[in-house]
């Protein structure tokens, strides 16, 4: 993972220039070359694939209205606020926001009986946008480059009910939302309190994760090992 634009070789710099020219008209003022670099790294520096991925993301953002989730007009469904209680709790020593997700406590069947799938995806998009906002604020405060989020997945309570087909499909849709619309978002993913059923659950999600994301997953405590 390249962290500094100065580390790009000449071919990569040329690819970045080409990609910037392709998407220039769709970029926001704060979407700089570091932003573009994430899309290129997600597509092995293929400018055409990065362009396609970026434009697909624009469609998803419009469909879920992600550009408004940080404004007062967005009111998440009450059931999501109550029963999907993940949130941000401080920063790591380098200033990256920390998101704690009590995944093992979430009742996916109950959620899907109460809200639409797109409501869940928009809520997760809100979390993603909030993380980027916190990272930008910390970068401005410290003068350092802060652009990723640390995720702590609390698996206490994970059981067979979480292997329910529609629930797994929903979680995979959330994983795809992050992979395809927020490339390079996660700095590290720490899994805590993982029960013995966790590897089985992980194997259902693994096909939807990039190699970069899978390599960032670390299980803390216990003797569970993952095969990437």
UniProtKB/TrEMBL annotation:
SMART domains: CRAL_TRIO_N, SEC14. Residues 76-228 form the CRAL-TRIO domain. It holds the Pfam family CRAL_TRIO. GO terms for cellular component: cytoplasm. It comes from the Eukaryota. PROSITE patterns: CRAL_TRIO (PS50191). This is SEC14-like protein 2.
């Amino acid at each position: 993972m390249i962290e500094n634009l100065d580390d790009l070789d000449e071919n990569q710099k040329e690819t970045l220039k080409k990609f910037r020219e392709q998407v220039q008209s769709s970029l926001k003022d704060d979407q700089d070359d570091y932003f573009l670099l994430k899309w290129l790294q997600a597509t092995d520096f293929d400018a055409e694939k990065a362009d396609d991925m970026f434009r697909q993301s624009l469609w998803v953002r419009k469909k879920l209205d992600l550009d408004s989730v940080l404004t007062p007009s967005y009111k998440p469904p009450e059931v999501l606020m109550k029963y999907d209680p993940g949130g941000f709790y401080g920063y790591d020593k380098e200033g990256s926001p920390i998101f704690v997700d009590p995944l093992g406590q979430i009742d996916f069947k109950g959620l899907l009986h109460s809200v639409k799938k797109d409501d869940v995806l928009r809520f997760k998009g809100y979390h993603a946008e909030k993380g980027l906002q916190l990272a930008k604020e910390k970068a401005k405060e410290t003068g350092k480059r802060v652009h990723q989020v640390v995720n702590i997945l609390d698996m206490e309570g994970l059981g067979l009910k979480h292997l329910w087909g529609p629930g797994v499909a929903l979680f995979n849709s959330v994983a795809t939302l992050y992979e395809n619309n927020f490339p390079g978002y996660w700095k590290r993913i720490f899994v805590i309190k993982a029960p013995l059923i966790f590897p089985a659950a992980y194997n259902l999600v693994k096909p939807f994760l990039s190699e970069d994301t899978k390599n960032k997953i670390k299980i803390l405590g216990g003797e569970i090992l993952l095969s990437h």
